[in-house]
Design a protein that fits this description.
- This protein has 19 helices and 18 strands.
- It is α+β, with helices and mostly antiparallel strands.
- The protein has four domains: about 40 residues, no CATH class; about 160 residues, NADH Oxidase (3-Layer(aba) Sandwich), CATH 3.40.109; about 140 residues, no CATH class; about 100 residues, SCP2 sterol-binding domain (Nonspecific Lipid-transfer Protein, Chain A, 2-Layer Sandwich).
- Strands 16-15-14-17-18 form a five-stranded mixed sheet. Strands 5-6-10-7 form a four-stranded antiparallel sheet, sandwiched between helices. Strands 1-2-3 form a three-stranded antiparallel sheet, with no helix packed on it.
- The two termini are about 40 Å apart.
- The N terminus is likely disordered.
């Protein structure tokens, strides 16, 4: 909004310069009853300090199973601050809320039971945050319940779609550590928890501190059970593989389904791409709430004081009763053609049904694309590739970047560094259209929107590392 619309306001807010003219658009009387009561209340009841331990106790009264409060001035929160302040400009502290879930529904091969528990617990922890925010407001403390559940700031998709990272706040507040499956593991409840964050407009005393150990016992059961191989034993995580399968009905998978509908000339063509059971499942996600396709990594995790004994006392029974049924389940697994996930399913779970899909993730600009590349990089497909690319973008988003692929690793640097194996000059919007398959390479070359120096076949190597 144009600040000139309001003009400039002096410190007392009793007068305003409106486009150079002195006027009084806010003729508030200092003896107004409401103003008088406020002044008297402020003089007689100064704002009390907010104790983290008292705040935690209040959160427990509101229904939380655990909670921890931190100030946002903590170093580990620095990267989150711009996003937090975009939601609540005066936020100075945060309290993370934990709601535990029963393990058995999550472990069931009947995914409707697991998803029913996910939805119910999400509602519960959201209501805890709302009750806490109301209770704090009654005490004169500004509080914003950021609401749990799947990220929904979709105007930013496929970028950051969440308001605040509940996992990061939970770790800072000593409510757990992330295991290699990227779920927060609570020291007592294990990873069978859902999180929420309430932002506060004043700092707290007696902050919570991070755990001095990680509850993850490194059993690698999550590695063994993941149907798309998103979790590797060395700690690598293929977030796109997880997104394409487990979160198919939440984000890009729905875009892929719409593409299938609009691209199909008739019913027969549509049914050749989408099974009736998948159509029914998508309809249910629209009418009853979207469903996770697996979350098996959470199901088999034995970490946490309340859970670990079940595994240690009878490892064979735990494997047979919890892990094997999920591994042996015959089900569709959604993967991008040519991805590491597709190879993993065919080798590790040949009895499961491979369903090739588009990720539905289409960056809208070069910066968004570059931010997404590390997540989409397929290190298995990059085996044997050693290439350095110099990209020079012109047009809407000008810039230079070096992309290197060596030893199954990806490196992205601003500017041009080293000697390139392939140098590309390309119109930024045309490159986005090319990556989204709206325009072909030949058309780019003929139109003059792409020029290169080096062996253009190197682009095939680039595409191989980022299928779909």
């Amino acid at each position: 909004m144009d600040p000139q619309f309001f003009g400039s306001v002096n410190e007392s807010v009793d007068s305003v310069y409106w486009n150079g003219l002195h006027c009084q658009p806010f003729p508030m009387k200092s003896d107004h009853p409401s103003i008088s009561r406020y002044r008297q209340r402020e003089a007689t009841a100064p704002r009390a300090s907010l104790s983290g331990s008292e705040l935690r106790a209040l959160a427990m009264e509101c229904g939380a199973d655990d909670a921890g409060a931190i100030n946002l001035s903590r170093p580990e929160m620095a990267a989150e601050l711009p996003y937090i302040h975009a939601a609540m400009a005066r936020a100075k502290a945060a309290i993370c809320l934990v709601k535990k879930m029963p393990a058995e529904p999550i472990r069931s091969t009947r995914r409707s039971l697991a998803n029913g528990e996910f939805h119910a617990s999400t509602d519960d922890v959201g209501e805890v945050g709302r009750r806490l925010a109301v209770a704090l407001a009654e005490r004169g403390i500004g509080a914003l319940n950021t609401t749990p559940g799947f990220p929904m700031e979709m105007a930013e998709f496929p970028g950051r779609t969440w308001v605040v990272s509940h996992k990061l706040v939970a770790e800072a507040a000593g409510l757990g550590k992330m295991g290699i499956h990227r779920n927060v593991i609570h020291p007592k409840f294990g990873n069978f928890v859902l999180l929420n964050t309430v932002l506060l407009d004043q700092e707290v005393t007696e902050e919570s501190k991070p755990l001095d150990y990680n509850p993850c016992v490194e059993c690698k059961l999550c590695v063994a059970v993941c149907p798309v191989g998103a979790i590797s034993s060395d700690g690598h995580f293929d977030s796109v593989a997880c997104l394409n399968h487990n979160y198919r009905e939440f984000m890009g998978g729905f875009i892929d389904w719409v593409d299938n509908v609009t691209d199909s000339p008739n019913r027969k063509a549509y049914q050749s791409k989408v099974d009736d059971t998948e159509t029914a499942s998508l309809w249910q996600s629209l009418s009853m709430g979207p469903n996770y396709k697996s979350a098996y990594c959470m199901a088999v995790c034995p970490a946490g004081d309340d859970i670990l004994g079940q595994f240690l006392d009878d490892k064979r029974g735990f494997i047979e009763q919890v892990v094997n049924p999920l591994q042996e389940k015959v089900e569709p697994v959604y993967v991008v053609k040519g991805s590491d996930a597709e190879l993993h399913v065919s080798k590790r779970f040949p009895h499961k049904v491979v369903r090739r899909v588009s990720s539905g993730v289409r960056p809208h600009g070069v910066r968004q694309l570059l931010a997404a590349l590390p997540l989409a990089f397929q290190r298995g497909r990059a085996k044997g590739i050693a290439v350095r690319y110099h990209f020079t973008f012109v047009g809407k988003e000008p810039g230079q970047v070096t992309i290197s692929i060596f030893d199954q690793r990806l490196e992205i640097q601003e500017g041009h560094t080293g000697s390139p194996d392939l140098a590309v000059w390309v119109d930024s919007q045309a490159w986005i259209d090319f990556m989204a398959k709206r325009i072909g390479l030949v058309n780019l070359l003929v139109s003059g929107k792409l020029r290169f120096r080096g062996n253009l076949k190197r682009l095939e190597s680039f595409g191989r590392c980022f299928p779909g």
